[in-house]
Amino acid sequence: ERKYEPANIEKKWQQHWENTGLHTTVESSDRPNYYCLEMFPYPSGRLHMGHVRNYSIGDLVARFKRMQGYNVLHPMGWDAFGMPAENAAIKNKSHPASWTYDNIAFMRNQQKEFGLTYDWNREITTCSPDYYKWTQWLFLLFYERGLAYKKKGAVNWCPECSTVLANEQVEEGKCWRCGTEVVKKDLEQWYLRITDYAERLLTDLDKLSEWPERVKTMQRNWIGKSTGTEVIFGIDGHEGSLKVFTTRPDTLYGVTYLVLAPEHPEIARITADSPKRDEIRQFIEEVRKKSEIERTAADAEKIGLFTGEYAIHPKTGDRVPIWIANYVLPDYGTGAVMGVPAHDERDFEFAKKYDLPIKVVIQPADEQLEVPLKAAYTGEGVLVDSAQFNGLQNLDAIEKISADLEQERKGERTVSYRLRDWLISRQRYWGCPIPIVYCEQCGTVPVPKDQLPVLLPEKVEFEAVGKSPLATNESFVNTTCPSCGGEAVRETDTMDTFIDSSWYYIRYASAKLETAPFDTETVNRWLPVDKYIGGIEHAVLHLLYSRFFTKVLHDAGLVNFEEPFESLFTLGMVTKDGAKMSKSKGNVVSPEDIVSKYGADTARTYVLFAAPPDRDLEWSDQGVEGAYRFLGRVWRLAEAHSEMFANRPAANHSQGAAKKLWQQTHFAIKKVTEDYGDRFQFNTAISAIMELVNSIYAYPEDADAGTKLDAIETVLLLLSPIAPHITEELWQILGNQESIHLQKWPTFDPAALVQDEIEYVVQVNGKVRDRIIVSKDATRDEIKVLALAQEKVKELVEGNDIKKFIVVPGKLVNIVVA
Ligand code: ANZ
Ligand code: ZN
Question: In this predicted structure, which of 49-53, 158-162, 331-335, 693-697 has the lowest mean pLDDT?
């Protein structure tokens, strides 16, 4: 008898599968397609347990679906541009490309050691010119469609990474990558017009029924739609007007001041002749040093300055002082707010601090507000002190006042979104060059598509002070204008790497195509992705950007779907000693060690068994041992029966132990099929397989052998998506020629699931006291006799009156005694 030695079988099968092309995508027209995708990794160096967990789930799905008769697309690639490569290059005096490709080679090898069923013919590497050529092509598509533009403005700048960041990459005022406090800088940068898609990105979330609610909520909040009214105020002594955005036009008569964001473009004009000009300029500079988060935090101190100028109230004609304050954001609404201290908390606080009037215009129905107010009243009520609108319910007044303003052309109903356009310029080397040329004659000129790719120059200064690394390579910078042939210079910023990952899942469908980013017809056959598996941290980054890209490609007629990911699964973290596994915490368990000690199958079985996939998994060395022992049990079971398989008797499971094992086998098939499929709960599936293994071990020697062999075979089939090597080896030991991974998924026989006997819970006065097992055909009287005969029940019932005897068929008995 051979012992279970993973080292002897895993490499062997991996090689065999590669040689026989087991993982090559099949595109057969008589089978349905299934696209299973795990978020591709950044090639940081080596795999961590989070990767292993992610890939084990994806691999299980891919194998399960293939056995269920689907053509399965299950590709892998590398999100290979990005800062760490550049930082490592600076540190090691090497080139980012060699660092990146070394890491890819190492990590690809690790993935192969896990026996993952990826189709390596479709591997994608975003830093490779045959990929980023098409990223540039897509940038030009956006440009042609008016969706890529350059603008000057205040941008988020990370001093540590010395590059700008998109809003999505600033988390609580800090850089998403390095945690450094982000500052504002005025720069001219490229943007993608994601705000054009805000409404569709919002409403289409409702169609994503197989996405976690949590992710959808995060996207909704990020898009931040708000319905309101723009109200136009005149400016005393000046031309023009000031528009404010308000969600509460019902409070219009309670306005006692206006506040502008320090960045508001009208400030300079209306204070040009003001004696306070210098004071104002100084104030603005002060405020702008603070980040957005600091400025708007609920507990942040509100600071403001009176401009000395006045606005004209659109209804009353009153003069309203114009202030500048830190709590008004420049890029939300109109960057100007009407101050209603009586009914808005922030305004109340501000008015108190600067002694501005507070005017009540909404009275609650059940009490009279006491003036002076101790706090803003933000509830519902009836309008007072509001001219012809007095007496209206404030919710009705929102409508009435908006309509009135619209009629007088002093306002307009609008919506505002929190979502901002996506800033994509990066002052870094290791990214996709933006295919744009600047010519003195022709201005901004896109590089013609047939001249792509604009190759990244090899030689640059990585730590150029005050400019992008690409700007240090003169032969890159200086070029000729594609339009007039004259002298021109190239754009020297590179693209945000989130652009690379916004379309890679589409490229996989026709990964090697040389004439276009993808083949529309092939893409439409495979996409949307049926199951997308990855971390929650991408909720408003990658997942929002990819949805945006897909919609643009749809509108350009290049794909026929509007959402890229039909079903999204976000997995939990891998933790140890209660904390996320990380180098800095020193609590890392390395995948290589687990593989060399126990084999890949144990690692895979363990990560799928130790916790439901959406929960955090607390690493336990005993748990790994347990998984290894379980696989050993399966090994010995199959090994011990290999000779019986050689002369396999037909099964007879009409009665006795054979019937019971047959039923258990089919119960396991049903359970595992549901768990792998709709329920997406792998730990319970493994439990069901373990129970079946236990039953086979306990099966009497003299009972029907054919039934036993059927059960053993079923164990291997059910386990094969989780532990592909051991099951393949045993499958062969049992005498099969063809790979277990090409077998049909077992189906259950409904006849086997019919229960002959049913367990009833016995309650006395609603409390569970015992359980009885009765034939499924038992009558009510038979059940009653048996229930009352139980020791514990007798004690409670004897000598008492039975008031009621309730039978819930198939479930429980309740005896009510007085
Ligand atoms: C007057 C008012 C009275 C307001 C009241 C609220 C309550 P949401 O729901 O988030 O869209 N606001 C508008 N633009 C702003 C900006 N750029 N920076 C800071 N605050 C701004 O919030 C909309 C409300 O936030 C608007 O309605 C405005 O204050 C403020 F009793 O206008 B409100
Ligand atoms: Zn030109």
Answer: 158-162
Do 663 and 799 fall into the same domain? Answer: no
Q: Is residue 208 part of a domain?
A: no
For ligand 1, whether the C-beta of 227 sits within 6 Å is no
Ligand 1 atom closest to Cα of residue 416:
11
pLDDT in tens, 326-368: 999 888 999 999 999 999 999 999 999 999 999 999 999 888 8
583 in a labelled binding site: yes
Q: Ligand 1 pocket, 376 CB below 6 A?
A: no
For ligand 2, the distance from its centroid to the CA atom of residue 449, given in whole angstroms, is: 17
Residues 551, 553, 556: CA angle, nearest 5 degrees: 110
Residue 672 lies in a domain: yes
Beta strands at 579-580 and 574-576: parallel, antiparallel or unpaired: antiparallel
| 155: pLDDT strictly greater than 70 | yes
pLDDT, average across residues 64-85: 96
Q: Is the CB of 340 under 6 A from ligand 1?
A: yes
Q: Is residue 649 part of a domain?
A: yes
Cβ–Cβ < 8 Å for 723, 605: yes
Ligand nearest to the CA of 489: 2
**pLDDT at residue 32 is higher than 90:** yes
- Reply yes or no on whether the pLDDT at 780 is more than 80: yes
180 in the same domain as 261:
no
Domain containing 805 — which CATH number? 3.10.20.590
Nearest CA to ligand 1 atom 33: 246
Query: pLDDT confidence of 93, banded at 50, 70, 90?
Result: confident
Torsion on CA atoms 245, 246, 251, 255, rounded to nearest 10: -40
Instruction: Identify the domain containing residue 739 by its residue range.
Output: 590-753
Residue nearest to atom 5 of ligand 1 (CA): 344
Query: 710 pLDDT exceeds 70?
Result: yes
Tell whether 295 and 341 lie within a shared domain.
Answer: yes
Q: What is the ipTM of this complex?
A: 0.95
Q: How far is the CA of 484 from the centre of ligand 2 (A)?
A: 4
CB of 262 shorter than 6 A to ligand 1: no
Mean pLDDT of 290-308: 79
**Residue with CA at minimum distance from ligand 1 atom 25:** 246
pLDDT at 407: 97
Q: Is residue 207 part of a domain?
A: no
Angstrom distance (rounded) from CA 686 to CA 689: 5
Q: Which residues surround ligand 2, an ion (CB under 5 A)?
A: 439, 441-442, 481, 483-484, 486
Q: Is the CB of 414 under 6 A from ligand 1?
A: no
- Residue with CA closest to ligand 1 atom 11: 226
The pTM of the full predicted model, rounded to 2 decimals, is 0.87
Coil, strand or helix at 418: coil
| Nearest alpha carbon to residue 131 among 106, 100, 162, 102 | 100
760 CA to centre of own chain: 44
Residue 251 C-alpha to ligand 1 middle, in angstroms?
11
Q: How far is the CA of 324 from the centre of ligand 1 (A)?
A: 15
Q: Is 394 in the pocket of ligand 1 (CB under 6 A)?
A: no
Q: What is the pLDDT of residues 478-510, one digit of tens each?
A: 999 999 999 999 999 999 999 999 999 999 999
Task: Report the separation in Å between the CA atom of 475 and the middle of ligand 2, taken as the mean of its atom positions.
Answer: 18
Q: How far is the CA of 350 from the centre of ligand 1 (A)?
A: 14
Domain boundary (393, 417, 441) is at 417
What single-letter DSSP state applies at residue 235?
Answer: E
Please state, as a whole number, how many other Cβ atoms lie within 10 Å of the Cβ of residue 92. Answer: 10
Give 488's strand partners.
439, 479
Summarize pLDDT for 41-71 with one digit per residue, the tens: 999 999 999 999 999 999 999 999 999 999 9
Band the pLDDT of 307: cuts 50, 70, 90: very high
178: left (phi over 0), alpha (psi -120 to 50) or beta: alpha
Mutating to test ligand 1, I would choose from 245, 253, 326 the residue with most ligand atoms within 8 A of its C-beta, which is 245
Alpha carbons within 13 angstroms on the beta-carbon side of residue 598 total 24
Contact by Cβ (8 Å): 242, 260: yes
